[in-house]
Amino acid sequence: MIDLLIRKVLPKPDVAGRMVRWAIELSEFDVQYEPIGPIKGQVYADFIVELSLAATHQEEPNSRWVLSVDGSSNQQGSGVGVILEGPNGLLIEQALRFAFKASNNQAEYEALIAGMLLAKQMGAKSLLAKSDSLLVTEQVTGEYQAKDPQMGAYLEYGKILKETFAVFELVHIPDNRMAELTC
Predict the structure, then answer these.
(1) Within a domain: residue 34?
(2) For residue 117, which of 16, 36, 66, 147 sits 20 to 30 Å off, Cα-Cα?
(3) In the predicted model, what is the mean pLDDT of residues 168-182?
(4) What domain range includes position 35?
(5) Which residues does 51 contact at the CB level (< 8 Å), separation at least 6?
(6) What pairing do the DSSP bridges indicate for beta strands 65-74 and 77-85?
(7) Rounded to 5 degrees, what angle do the CA atoms 128, 68, 121 make?
(8) Exposed (0-12), middle (13-18) or buried (19+): which is 70, by Cβ within 10 Å?
(9) Where is mean pLDDT largest: 25-29, 35-39, 94-98?
């Protein structure tokens, strides 16, 4: 069952070239066109309902969301990987590729900010964030200062987002393979 233009080709023997040969080859297998129908729309509807239920659930007082982030940059571009684990086995994974040039540290900040925004949208109150960037982790926790103006802007926005959670903890994970994104 497919929803392609092959339905227009199979019943017409006057189409030239390879399509005629394919039509003849496929005719011996009794191939017929059947539209897929509303399955695609139902998948989207089910997905939205599932996320809506997850976002509107009553969070237990001690429930903690876990965020794993990783950003990377190379000659071809930069991007991030974000994994958000919520209560009751909820798992959301995102991979983002940027249309702008970014350093590795900027990509790491972008990953953290994207993950924090996702957690906020999902209604998380307590968030444990894991990053493999020592610089980002130490800047957000206040151990390091941001000397570069761009890093300072990322740091300020990270601090603003940090305040939106009742409990926020950022830890350095030396090798965060779970959220690794290869650009």
Answers:
(1) yes
(2) 147
(3) 67
(4) 6-55
(5) none
(6) antiparallel
(7) 70
(8) buried
(9) 94-98
